[in-house]
Amino acid sequence: MTQQSSAITAEQALAAAKKLSRRQQKVGRVVSNKADKTIVVVVESLKKHRIYKRTFKQTARFYAHDENNSCSVGDLVRIEESRPLSKLKRWRLVEIVKYGSGIVPVEQVVAEVDPNLREESAESAE
Predict the structure, then answer these.
(1) Of the candidates 59, 77, 61, which has an alpha carbon nearest to the alpha carbon of residue 69?
(2) What Å distances lie between residue 6 and 2, 12, 13, 19, 87, CA to CA?
(3) pTM of this structure
(4) Which residue has the higher pLDDT, 12 or 50?
(5) What's the stated role of this polypeptide (predicted)?
(6) Residue 90: C-alpha distances to residues 63, 64, 76 (Å)
C-alpha cells in the first residue's frame, strides 16, 4: 500500500509541475555557442501561405542561457521562456535532446593547428 501511495504522489507531483509551468518551450538546433554561457538556437516551423496555400519553412533564432556551456554546435535542444537575462536573451536551456555529430568547420581546425597557415593562404590568394 505504501508503494501505491508513493507512486500516486510522484505522478501528482509531475502533473503539478506541468500545471505550474505555463512557459512556452521550443525545440531547435544550436547554430552558435561562441559567447560565454549563451547559445543561439534555430527553430524551424512549417507554415502555410494564407492565399496560395503553399507550405514554406520559417526559421527563427533565439538566444538562450546555457549555464554550464554544455552545448555544442549541432545539438538538438529544448529551450524555455524566462525573464530577460540580457539585451537579447529571453530563453534558457532546459535539456539537450540529442547530441550533434561534433563536426567542426575546417577553418576552425586549421586556425587551432597553425594560425599562421591561414594568414599565408590569404596572402597567396591575393
Answers:
(1) 77
(2) 6, 10, 10, 20, 44
(3) 0.66
(4) 50
(5) One of the primary rRNA binding proteins, it binds specifically to the 5'-end of 16S ribosomal RNA.
(6) 7, 7, 18
